[in-house]
Amino acid sequence: xxxxxxxxxxxxxxxxxxxxxxxxxxxxxxxxxxxxxxxxxxxxxxxxxxxxxxxxxxxxxxxxxxxxxxxxxxxxxxxxxxxxxxxxxxxxxxxxxxxxxxxxxxxxxxxxxxxxxxxxxxxxxxxxxxxxxxxxxxxxxxxxxxxxxxxxxxxxxxxxxxxxxxxxxxxxxxxxxxxxxxxxxxxxxxxxxxxxxxxxxxxxxxxxxxxxxxxxxxxxxxxxxxxxxxxxxxxxxxxxxxxxxxxxxxxxxxxxxxxxxxxxxxxxxxxxxxxxxxxxxxxxxxxxxxxxxxxxxxxxxxxxxxxxxxxxxxxxxxxxxxxxxxxxxxxxxxxxxxxxxxxxxxxxxxxxxxxxxxxxxxxxxxxxxxxxxxxxxxxxxxxxxxxxxxxxxxxxxxxxxxxxxxxxxxxxxxxxxxxxxxxxxxxxxxxxxxxxxxxxxxxxxxxxxxxxxxxxxxxxxxxxxxxxxxxxxxxxxxxxxxxxxxxxxxxxxxxxxxxxxxxxxxxxxxxxxxxxxxxxxxxxxxxxxxxxxxxxxxxxxxxxxxxxxxxxxxxxxxxxxxxxxxxxxxxxxxxxxxxxxxxxxxxxxxxxxxxxxxxxxxxxxxxx
Length: 608
Known about the structure:
Layout: H1 3-12, H2 27-33, H3 35-40, H4 44-52, H5 62-66, H6 72-95, H7 124-130, H8 132-137, H9 141-147, H10 170-180, E1 185-186, H11 199-208, E2 217-221, H12 232-246, E3 250-256, E4 258-259, E5 273-277, E6 280-281, H13 288-297, E7 305-310, H14 318-328, E8 333-336, E9 350-351, E10 355-356, H15 365-368, H16 373-389, E11 393-396, H17 399-407, E12 417-418, E13 422-430, E14 440-445, H18 454-461, E15 469-475, E16 484-488, H19 498-505, E17 510-512, H20 523-530, E18 534-537, H21 543-550, E19 554-556, H22 560-565, H23 569-579, E20 583-589
Parallel strand pairs: 2-3, 2-7, 7-8, 8-11, 11-12, 14-15, 14-17, 15-16, 17-18, 18-19
Antiparallel strand pairs: 1-4, 3-5, 5-6, 9-10, 13-20
């Protein structure tokens, strides 16, 4: 392993296992003296280099740490951090269907006899088969899962509670691991007939939701339920449904019963899907082919399918979707580039979930050492077959998304048409700036995910200049971090603008929006700009930096280190707001599928 690969291994896997990167830096030693870093789940070496050293925090060698004894206070803090990890781990296992008692979650560091380990819910063969990076590293697979693997949605065993797991053979274990390694959540069980509806039952639900025999129908495919989940695609689907209703069309949004970034394996047979029709959730789940059978049989002359919309293929079977499209003969097909799932199972194009890879060739070494590389070739082939089979109008919500989709080694066959999801319009209002003891108010808005820049925000809140700022997190879940005030925020279709109102209300002057990938369209960014906030970001953030620059609100740093070392940032932000009136704008949704699909169009499309 060359030095570059060794460093990447440490940054992605090694530190989670307590490995030391050199003879001068102890991973456990740094965490023992910096419990805020430990509780936050931050990489200790990355934290020390980017901000810890400037803050005067001390790095010690592994040999020195081995000779140290923790004080009672340190032991208490370490125990609290371990207990938080135990709570998070149990919550994850329960979400997968494992009934685990917290007292049974004993970490490797707590065992007096580490060789005698059988937690019952962990399958070593399954985990190693689905995680070649762990197998290659030689580390204890159970320790890897408990100390960090679960945070990356890796599965400890095949789906379902361990008590119900009876593997037929080692081959079955390997196939299950390789096809289910990416984290999933299940809505209904395929083995429970009570939760499965027939095609006729689903069609009856459509009728009750207002679908008439000759009504125009628009069918969209997404990755989860836009009525309960929060995100960009979900917002688009919600507004899209409202717009098609105004056009007199029935909008059916189909998503997999078992959701995840992987496509459903062909060898598993036809899976179950769920659906919202005109915003109403259809009872139970069903098989797409049976619903298409019922729809065609009940429609003399064939159903009027005005359009098919591909929002996401994640969790679906492209082959089944293609079969349904061929039978329904839609008038228009729209393929959205919301992400880069046409190029990799990791739809953000982040190698090992960390660094943007730029869509390399399928056969390069960097792809082979990536935890997503194993499924990539098959994934790209299956998605591309669906794309090539029909005359899709491929659309991207930004120029950045369009460029990335054709710039790599698995480019789309055509450059997408750029159709922005919305725009900012003036309101004529000017917001007054709140000043609190001279401190500048900066916020992070949205999910606390690594790829969205949450770790960067945490490091920023502990930087040497942190005393010049007040830090806020506007989101769904309170992460309870020191020095960060939490403000509840929940977006849904129809209430877009809540974030803007809260940012103005709390007098936020800048929003840190630091995605690790090239964003396709970032609603948080527009909400921030609408509130008159400056946007702190990096030059590789795709549409985030492009939009912020368009409105002359961008503060761009080439690296996290440059951000953390800028002692004049607070003064620059404050000076900007004192010199430039803070104009409040409103975000209007515009570029949705309803702007592309004409419900009454006589045009008929189909397979090429």
